[in-house]
Design a protein that fits this description.
The protein has 21 helices and six strands. By secondary structure, it is α/β, with parallel strands linked by helices. The chain folds into two domains: 348 residues, no CATH class; 145 residues, no CATH class.
């Protein structure tokens, strides 16, 4: 019998690895198929401005700190992963997007494993379905940003904490920090959790808990040696830290973060159902505790209670941190907390009667899918839903039209279109075009633009600004959101004597191209 046990254990371990591999392959295939129309799209916004150039610097020159774009202090693991994928399979948007699909599949699989450690198979599956369909996660599943990989490694770290596998926690949390430096917030959460829910930690536990800190310190020292800064650069620090520390700015950011977590994208529907379920869960738990007390039983460890604590602490620390730092209040920065957040909500809804629970999940899933396509009545980041695909396709059309123009006209536009037209590797043009950059499309941005500095003006809906924009009706909200209305094209056409030569539009987003009236360009092209 003693001889058979190792064989049995090895067989079980091999079966587990096989199931894990099959689960990843199946999840990867499902996510890739769901995103099939999006897999060959060129790069979007910050992908084009930082993340892809940074990965190319490592791919081509082995540089962990990029030189072809701004130095932001971001840790380099995602750049390394993308470079490895390009080295194996070739550099293209398709390979980039499939690499990010792999991170999305890994996150869903990690969430399922985490869910099975605290709940039933059905609950874990529903958590994965709702996370996969949530508009933010669905949109981010192919985009080369840092937040989705950070969500994967953070979810694995939470699972390791619950299962008391501290070595696994050290590895996962260190990888999370190397994915994005803000993931270091998992460490204080882990320390509090271990002190409250585990026996007094020994020396080895403290070693594992501090491993992510050591990893970040090592990266910071390396970055300082290369750049002279401990993180970012002077401009980056001013935008993301020094300018964000006012009490009013922090309060406004906190309100926006709470909205992003609890209300946006039909989250409010799941949160409302979870509140109802939590009341039932709390009543059932109180009754069970009373029965155990009456029978003089000891209260056993409750994995669900421990998970709720971890999910609440992780969410709170992310919301607090991102209300204080970060110039852009982007929803994707919260992505590392969302897998645990959705699992916690699903667990709470699971306390409702089963028919009600399933009907709720189906309704929420339908709402999430609707939110892929429906935009709010206020400015939001296109990357929060499938609006990003409309943005890219519009810019593809504009780049194709501009590339077909005779000669080498000077094109006045704002970032990210400037990079799209200058760098063929981003997927928009086959050769670099002549570009004159302007800061943005607000009236002050054109103050110093001379009449003779450009030949074509390329305007586009750089920010979502619907006709019934709430910001124009609520000045207080506009001030809190730092909203500035874009300049009206009619003012530019009058000032610079322009006429429209091309126009493209998709689901409320638009592109307008203007030429100088004294030099007639080809006939007007309109595509609605």
């Amino acid at each position: 019998m003693g001889c058979n046990m190792p064989l049995s254990m090895n067989k079980t371990s091999a079966n587990s690895r096989l199931l894990l591999s099959l689960g990843f392959i199946g999840t990867f295939g499902a996510v890739a198929l769901a995103h099939y129309p999006l897999l060959r799209l060129p790069y979007l916004w910050d992908e084009a401005g930082y993340y892809v150039p940074a990965a190319l610097d490592f791919f081509r020159h082995g540089l962990l700190v990029p030189q072809s774009t701004l130095t932001t202090g971001h840790t380099p693991l995602v750049s390394v992963c993308l470079a490895l994928a390009w080295w194996l399979l070739g550099f293209s948007p398709l390979i980039t997007r499939l690499t990010m699909v792999a991170f999305a599949a890994g996150t869903l699989l990690a969430l399922y494993i985490l869910g099975r450690s605290v709940a039933s198979r059905e609950t874990a599956i529903w958590a994965c379905i709702l996370l996969a369909l949530s508009p933010l996660f669905f949109a981010q599943s192919t985009l080369a940003f840092l937040d989705l990989p950070a969500a994967f490694t953070t979810t694995v770290a939470v699972w390791a904490l619950l299962r008391r596998r501290m070595a696994w926690f050290a590895i996962a949390a260190s990888l999370a920090v190397l994915t994005k430096e803000t993931a270091i917030v998992i460490v204080p959460v882990a320390i509090v959790f271990v002190c409250l829910f585990r026996k007094p930690p020994g020396k080895s536990t403290w070693v594992w808990l501090t491993a992510p800190v050591v990893t970040l310190v090592a990266w910071t020292a390396y970055y300082h040696n290369v750049t002279g800064f401990w993180t970012g650069n002077a401009e980056y620090l001013q935008y993301n830290l020094y300018s964000t520390l006012g009490p009013g700015r922090i309060a406004a950011s906190l309100l926006r973060r709470l909205y992003q977590v609890f209300i946006a994208g039909f989250n409010w529907l799941l949160v409302g159902a979870a509140l109802l379920g939590y009341r039932r869960m709390k009543a059932a738990r109180a009754l069970k505790a009373a029965e155990e007390t009456a029978m003089s039983k000891e209260h056993p460890a409750d994995p669900r209670k421990e998970f709720f604590f971890l999910a609440a602490c992780l969410g709170a620390i992310y919301v607090a941190m991102l209300s204080v730092v970060g110039g852009a209040v982007l929803t994707r920065y919260l992505l590392p907390m969302f897998p645990c957040f959705y699992l916690a909500l699903v667990l709470a809804v699971g306390a409702l009667p089963r028919p009600v629970m399933r009907a709720t999940f189906v309704l929420v899933a339908a709402g999430f899918v609707v939110a892929w396509f429906i935009n709010p009545k206020y400015p939001f980041a296109y990357e929060n839903n499938l609006s990003y695909a409309d943005f890219i396709r519009l810019h593809q059309q504009a780049a194709e039209w501009l590339s077909a123009q005779p000669g080498t006209p000077r094109i006045l536009t704002a970032w990210p279109a400037t990079d799209e037209l200058r760098h063929p590797e981003l997927g928009y043009v086959k050769r670099p075009l002549r570009v004159v950059g302007v800061q943005g499309f607000a009236p002050p941005d054109f103050k110093n633009v001379a009449d003779n500095s450009f030949d074509l003006l390329y305007l586009y809906s750089r920010k979502w600004d619907p006709p019934d924009n709430w910001m124009r009706r609520m000045p207080l909200l506009a001030r809190a959101d730092e909203y500035t209305a874009p300049i009206r094209p009619v003012f530019l056409t009058f000032r610079y004597q322009l006429h429209e030569v091309a126009a493209f539009e998709r689901r409320g987003q638009w592109v307008r191209i203007y030429a100088k009236s004294q030099s007639e360009a080809p006939g007007t092209v309109t595509n609605f």
